[in-house]
């Protein structure tokens, strides 16, 4: 418990505003119960990942891991391409020298991440990014992370890149630490071992959950909280059965947010689910002898 503002100086409530901001960035909620003359009790709730021990009795255990990525590097400068390749040993780097070639390569392969130079001849990075996003939507594909790279560091250029469809934005000259941080943030894969007996069923389940994300986005626009509640309920009841415990967790959170008509929280959860499904890789679980 904490007492109210000092009678001598008074409080600004700045600490509460900061605490609220931190909690909301964590995807949580903050609450207060106050009794006049006695003080106030502040509490918060936020989602945290469970340890592997929490699921050790499950048929499959979800283990996040960073693996070598297949990266499409789009840049017309050979010097820049060599620099990026030197920064990222262990990853598979494939090259496109302009936006038109980038789209052709992207359509013909399965990349984990794209590094896109925004200033290029023939077709620049803005148009290439828009074309990639249009192709993904037309073919019902999850959005692959695209990190825009530009010699311009102005807020307007960053905003233009994000509007075009980039997931993130880095300025030139590229700094190794900044690039590695962005790769870790957006390119991390999530590997989930699945019971071989149910492995054939999982791809369809994942595809249906991707459709659920699009349905949730449409339901938000229509304030159809009942629809969102049903989708969340279905996810919470089936996710762990397929070895995808995070789907269950997101589903339960969606149920709660739908009951509270919390549009902001629903939108955040939809993005979380989309990101999870985008980075998800399933592998057969090894059977214990």
Q: Any overview of this molecule?
A:
The radius of gyration is 22 Å and the shape is globular. Helix 3 packs parallel to helix 4, helix 7 runs antiparallel to helix 10 and helix 8 packs antiparallel against helix 9. The chain starts with 13 loop residues before the first helix and ends in a 5-residue tail after the last strand. The chain is 46% helix and 17% strand. The protein is of the alpha/beta class and 289 residues long. The longest helix is centred in the C-terminal third of the chain and has 20 residues. It has a five-stranded parallel β-sheet with strand order 5-4-6-7-8, sandwiched between helices.
> What fraction, in percent, of the residue positions are helical?
40-55%
- Uncertain regions: pLDDT < 50 for 5+ in a row? 1-14, 49-64
Tally of DSSP helical segments: 10
**Alpha carbon gyration radius:** 22 Å
Strand numbers in spatial order across the main sheet? 5-4-6-7-8
Q: Approximately what portion of the residues adopt beta-strand conformation?
A: 15-25%
Class by SSE composition: alpha/beta
Shape: globular
Distance between the termini: 53 Å
| Helix and strand element order | HEEEEHEHEHEHEHEHHHHE
Number of strands: 10
Biggest sheet descriptor: 5 strands, parallel
Mean pLDDT: 81
